[in-house]
Write a structure and sequence with these properties.
Elements: H1 2-23, H2 26-40, E1 43-44, E2 49-50, E3 55-57, E4 62-64, E5 69-70, E6 75-77, E7 82-84, E8 89-90, E9 95-97, E10 99-100, E11 116-117, E12 120-122, E13 127-128, E14 133-135, E15 141-143, E16 148-149, E17 154-155, E18 164-167, E19 172-176
């Protein structure tokens, strides 16, 4: 009986509850997403907002600092540790993931291989532009303090230059944020 109940709850969560949380509109939806993250995440700082269409998977591995905003239609997947510092801005349509499909065994179809996961750290004062993808599945990825990631960029390696601007596929160094550096 417990196994059946567990399967029903998982089905409801995967097919209805997560969508209700992610797709609830307006300020009410923002409060529902805040509550969901507050209850299930490792840490949630002050002044957090995740707008309509933000799906958060595996929040138990998620730690979020103060003044973090996630705009609409984002996917945040924390299969392993995902830490966001203070004052992080994530534009719409971004995907931030800590895992990737396994693919190293040619004798096993990729969809049957174990996911590769790694830690992802987004430090303070980072702005992730519209449509960007950050994936730490292949290796640990850390984004340095004050970095801007240009729209539609793909980040799969650490960015260790503070206050720099990166863009492209894959993301590469473009310039420093300030002329005096």
């Amino acid at each position: 009986m417990i196994k059946i109940l567990k399967k029903i709850l998982i089905f409801l969560y995967c097919n209805f509850i997560l969508e209700i949380i992610a797709l609830s509109p307006t300020v009410i939806g923002d409060k529902i997403r805040w509550l969901y993250i507050k209850v299930f995440a490792k840490r949630l700082g002050k002044n957090f907002v995740a707008h309509t269409g933000t799906f958060v998977y595996y929040p138990k591995n998620l730690s979020i600092g103060d003044n973090v905003s996630i705009n609409g239609n984002c996917i945040i997947q924390a299969l392993s540790s995902l830490r966001m510092g203070n004052d992080v801005m994530i534009a719409s349509n971004c995907n931030i993931m800590t895992s990737n499909h396994g693919f190293k065994n040619k004798h096993v179809p990729m969809n049957l291989q174990k996911n590769e996961t790694n830690e992802l750290i987004i430090n303070d004062d980072v702005w992730i532009g519209f449509g960007s993808v950050i994936n730490s599945g292949a290796r640990k990825v850390e984004i340095a303090k004050g970095v801007i990631i240009a729209s539609n960029s793909v980040v799969t390696k650490s960015i260790d230059i503070e206050y720099s601007i990166w863009g492209g596929v894959p993301a590469r160094f473009l310039k420093m944020r300030f002329d005096d550096e």
